[in-house]
Amino acid sequence: MTQDKIDQIIDKFEAKPRALIMILMDIQHHNRWLPKEALERVSERLGVPLAKVQQIAAFYKTFSLVPKGDHELHVCTGTSCHLRGAQKVLDTVYEVAGIRPGETDSESKFSLTAVNCMGACSLGPVMMVDGQYHGRLAPSKTEDVLKNVK
Amino acid sequence: MSEVRLTIDGKEVAATEGMTLLEAARTVGVEIPTLCHHDKLEPYGGCRVCTVEVEAWGRTKYVVGCVYPVEADIVVRTRSEKIDQIRKTILELMLAHAPDSHDLAEMAKEYKADPEKYRRESSFCIHCGLCVRYCDEIKGKNAVTFVDQGASREISFIPEIAAKECWDCKECFPLCPTSALQAAYVLARSFEDVG
Amino acid sequence: MQRIGSPEKLEEIRKAILEARDPKASSIAICAAPNCHALGNGAVVDAFEKEVKAQGLEGKVRVMATGCLGFCEMGPVVIVNPSNICYVQVGADDAAEIVSQVANGEKPIERLLYADPDTGERVEALDKIPFYREQSRILIGDNARIDPTSLEDYLAIGGYAALSKALFAMTPEAILDEVKESNLRGRGGGGFPAGRKWETTRNAPGEEKYVIVNGHEGEPGAFMDRALFTGNPHLVLEGLIIGARAIGATKGFIYTRHDSPMLLANLNRALEQAREAGLLGNDILGSGFDFDVEVHFDVGIFVSGESSALMRSLEGNMPEPRPKYVRTSVSGVNDMPSNLNNVETWANVPYIINNGVEWFAGMGTEKSNGSKLISLSGSARNIGVVEVEMGTSLKTVVETIGGGVANGKKLKAVHFGGPMGGSIPGDMIDTPLDFDELGKLGAPMGAGALLVIDDETCMVSLTRYFVEFLTKESCGKCTPCREGMRQMLNILNDICSGEGRPGDIERLEEIADTMSVASLCSLGKTAPDPLRSALRYFKAEYEAHINEKKCPAGDCAIEAN
Ligand SMILES: Cc1cc2nc3c(=O)[nH]c(=O)nc-3n(C[C@H](O)[C@H](O)[C@H](O)COP(=O)(O)O)c2cc1C
Ligand code: SF4
Ligand code: FES
Predict the structure, then answer these.
(1) Does B90 contact C486 at a Cβ distance shorter than 8 Å?
(2) pTM for this one?
(3) Which of C405, C429, C454 is the last residue of a domain?
(4) Could you tell me the end-to-end alpha-carbon distance of chain A, in angstroms, rounded to an integer?
(5) Can you tell me the ipTM of this complex?
(6) Running along chain A, 150 residues long, what does each successive block of 10 average in pLDDT?
(7) What domain range includes position C448?
(8) Minimal-distance CA residue to ligand 1 atom 25
(9) A71-147 belongs to which CATH class?
């Protein structure tokens, strides 16, 4: 991500310290993760200490401080999905891709995040792959879904 | 500033508006135990060992002395069976991190806290935040900060800032109630990480 | 839409919208909420639109992609109005048939109607389906009547009439009195009377005052706020503007989920439409009242739904609850008086203003009035978004609306309030939906996430799940909560894996007692509640794990030794 692009985003929010979270969200949205240089630039432009920017970036699970894989997997671990076997979905992802929540595989193909309630409880357990929902996931179906990701 | 009259452990106290219960208690020689409090820093209310009992308008509530402001006519008790039990549990939870801390051991004696009660944790840090807040509020450097949330929360130095600022300062080390080593350890490790 | 400069103009426009519409025209509402979307209904909507064109029915039959229609279990759901037919599990291939049925007033298509699972009998009308029959879908029912992207639709069903009344026919004091008298209680968890909170903010000194929508909905198993907000954004906005007027706020904030693209799109569009139409911004409807809102995202941590943490987050800070003993209604965002209410609480306001106190207070029990949205999930046969009158028995919700327990299992318990709530045993489900009754039983309503628990679910494991959730979703600032839950989780993990020891229950209770008294915010104070209710009603299950190394529900993997 270029500094120009980062500056554009910061300008959109008029470099207001109150918009820190919104700015980080926007950067993450465009870049899919938050590089160190981006945090430094935001700190400088907003006049917010770098430590605070880093703290916020590290606090919220939505933000990633490391590059993400090509495909984002979100497995719902909300109560309903939990009761309906979310753990098995996570285990299957681990078997197939070798990653646990918060991790990216060595080939940078998948990043896995565990999320709370995606509002699709009747389909539980649910996994979202690049924004597309997949429901009622038995282990074999989970495996198929992952294998079909190109 | 107007005067506020209240009772602390049976003693009449004439406090000034805006004082905390902790400050008011000190004026009459009542000591409330603290861990995360520091006179030079903003009240933090994190460790909760300074929890006391306040009776107001016929109701009893539990508040932290280092933050709660004095109010007219309230009755404050700084020791009771329930308060001692709370402090004991809080200390036991902290001792799971730092069984060898001198400060904690002293208090543990007073409250009969058992250092073996809960499973031992690997980090010494009890998250009082003194180092973090000192660096922010007094030094204005923000070289050390909290990262992560919930049970994974820990302190971390920002290598870029720490490399410039920390070696000649180290003023936060002696503030650590578990052992000065905690901050030092985390500081050193943060440089290993960047290689 | 053109700017609406007066209440008369608003009514004129409403009339024009209605006149331009053929009252006999049919509408086909297709649920476009995440659940049905996941089932591929994007294609379904397209197919219907194509079909209407192909059959030359534009203007006669209207296809609407709507917000959640509630019956998620049977999605994609299609509701036909005015004939009130409900089709379930509709696919793109069914479009042609349905469109022609609607256009020609033919007999409903048998195979797409809901079938009673016991008798197999088909049910034609929406309000005859057991899932809908016992509901009072006051707030969420409009989801089927409007396209959430259309302000015209909202005006057509009477939208912004309450705002107009509040601005021109009532004083701010009168609005406040109305809400106070209605006894509207907060829907976000605490059940605190909204009017009293409004009054505190109104009377608190401050150069600026703020009103805030709490759309965080971080509770796992809660999805009703999203359903309402996505499906009918103007309703919540209208309530907020009325509240601002009563309180004397000129600025509002909407704090909402960042991870729902449809919600964001609908919300932002609604704000734009309202600004353009003069319903938001300066001189609203020509009344001289100025008010605007800013949208902020929560970034995915449960504790940021707590009022003081939420306000810190709005300021661009860490969402750490504030240790100070001062209410946010007196000193909140930027230390100004700030009134925070839940999405559903705000949505009730226009209804109260339109229909009056008696109408609202006439529903429900003595101290819990109106209706309540419920996210029904877990092992219920029918999972979905439900709205019932307060005071409805849980039995009706679970058995009639929810269709009982799925997969032939037995009802063991119901759990309300997520990780800060509690469970009551299945044989107590005659209890009415009432803030105070449920609170007394140890299963406070919380935001309204109702989890149906079957007999193959272990209560120790469920408690463990909630505690683990909170160890990740709390801020970690204060000792009782952070360390207390860490150790609670250690003990519960041991118990679940057959390593429990005598004395574990007592140690859990000791931690729970300290947490509820000494924690800084409500998260830590109420985090032990699921444990407490489990020990109150299901202690034997804990003891079996510890003493006999057995999981009675057969849920925990304890090795036989
Ligand atoms: C940890 C925690 C999380 C909360 N999450 C929410 C939430 O997601 N939505 C909500 O409306 N209220 C939530 N609340 C309650 C709010 O603090 C606040 O009481 C509520 O928004 C007030 O609105 P009401 O009076 O209309 O219910 C939460 C409280 C706590 C302690
Ligand atoms: S109770 Fe928990 S969430 Fe609340 S301030 Fe303490 S650590 Fe944070
Ligand atoms: S000294 Fe008061 S909370 Fe730590």
Answers:
(1) no
(2) 0.94
(3) C454
(4) 25
(5) 0.94
(6) 91 91 90 92 93 85 86 90 91 94 90 85 88 88 89
(7) 371-454
(8) C186
(9) alpha beta
